[in-house]
Hints:
Rossmann fold, 5 helices
Amino acid sequence: xxxxQGHSMRTPGLGxxxxxxxxxxxxxxxxxLLAGCSALPDKPVRPTQFDFGPGAIADxxxxxxxxxxxxxxxxxxxxxxxxxxxxxxxxxxxxxxxxLRPYAQARWSMPPTQLVRQRLRERLSQRRAVLNAGESSAxxxxxxxxxxxxRIDLEEFSHLFQSPAASTGLVRLxxxxxxNTPAGxxxxxxxxxxxxxxxxSADAAGGVRALAEATDTVxxxxxxxxxxxxx
Length: 231
């Protein structure tokens, strides 16, 4: 009897200890789950995509000047980083101007070579027909001549920081005009075009706007220069 009473008196003590151990295990598991949830990566941020804007949104006034001879516009070429990459890039002239750095969360909607070609074609086609280089053979069947071919190398297209607070959009093109003669290609003219426009802000958005404005300036200068180039 005494033994039974002693056993019955010890049982509650064992139950409390077991309950405490289970509670502690549950609490530890909950903490582990919470720690695991907090360690999960955040939802990835999609880079912002940029282009040069919508372009012309209304018909231009009629140009009463005589139309200019047609041109064949070849694809714009560029060094590897500018040709393939879609990242918006910048240079820190005050630190290391030889290094191209990409903005982590800013991308062009298409390669810069295509953006520049699109804007140049839009400008040049205001007074003349601008064909793709492969389309120019159609003119040979109509009037017996081939249009001049415009070849463009995009050598620089970057957001250029002169200081942490001052920056510009820099565009540099080398333009070559080729005449396709019966004897073969003939170099008619070649010129470098450079334009810089100040950036309104020291970030990717400011650089993009400055690069778009610089490209428009180069396009206008190129249009005027081509009027002086003749066979």
